TrEMBL record:
SUPFAM superfamilies in UniProt: RmlC-like cupins
Gene3D superfamilies, per the entry: Jelly Rolls (2.60.120.10)
Species for this entry: Bradyrhizobium canariense
PANTHER family: PROTEIN VES
One Pfam family matching this protein: HutD
This protein's name: HutD-family protein
Family matches, as InterPro entries: RmlC-like_jellyroll, RmlC_Cupin_sf, Uncharacterised_HutD/Ves
Length: 193
């Protein structure tokens, strides 16, 4: 097990692919020996504010998971379906090819995005709201302190994570994660291709 504390003051800020806003890049991975751009992206864990209704970036070949962590009332609309994120800490999953426009029913929101190259990675995104254990598989796991400080336990060791910081956990085998206190968002990435 390898753990790395990612501090909020070190996060990179970059424009959305469509230029409509700015996201905070917490952690990402790109194809080896490639220029770090949208075409070489394997996965990205990021936060972004959504302050006005508008279209999402078109991202062919990318699967996306999203969760509201600040504010409430977000709805994503596509030509064929609607994704309801009105309640915070609800995960929605959609493809980057889908034409999506946001609707804000109660003003600005802050979201966590986990996106990954289809066929190369498998993704999961969940809110850890109640103390308790969950099994982690081999892969990369990101525990983000989305609302205040939190404490988690991994293999008998407690880790305190300050608000908006992230603990990156790289596992070569299965392990157990326990939320001890607070609230956290867990993003999990497994390389599959």
């Amino acid at each position: 097990m390898k753990t790395t504390l990612l501090k909020s003051e070190d996060y990179a800020r970059s424009p959305w692919k469509n230029g409509g806003g700015i996201f905070t890049d917490i952690a990402d991975a790109h194809r080896a020996e490639s220029v770090k751009d949208w075409d070489s992206l394997l996965w990205r864990f990021a936060t972004t504010p959504i302050v006005a209704p508008g279209p999402f970036s078109h991202m062919p070949g990318i699967d996306r998971l999203q969760m509201v962590v600040g504010g409430r009332g977000l709805v994503l609309k596509s030509p064929t379906e609607e994704f309801d994120e009105r309640e915070p800490f609800t995960t929605v999953r959609f493809t980057g090819e889908l034409e999506i426009v946001t609707r804000l029913e109660e003003g600005r929101v802050e979201v966590v995005n986990l996106m990954g190259r289809r066929g190369a990675v498998a993704l999961e995104l969940e809110a850890l709201k109640e103390p308790g254990e969950r099994r982690l598989s081999a892969g990369t796991h990101l525990i983000y302190a989305a609302r205040g400080d939190c404490t988690i336990r991994l293999e008998g060791t407690d880790f305190s994570i300050s608000h908006e910081n992230t603990l990156k956990v790289e596992l070569t085998g299965a392990s157990t994660l326990a939320l001890v206190s607070g609230l956290a968002v867990l993003g999990s990435i497994q390389i599959v291709g």
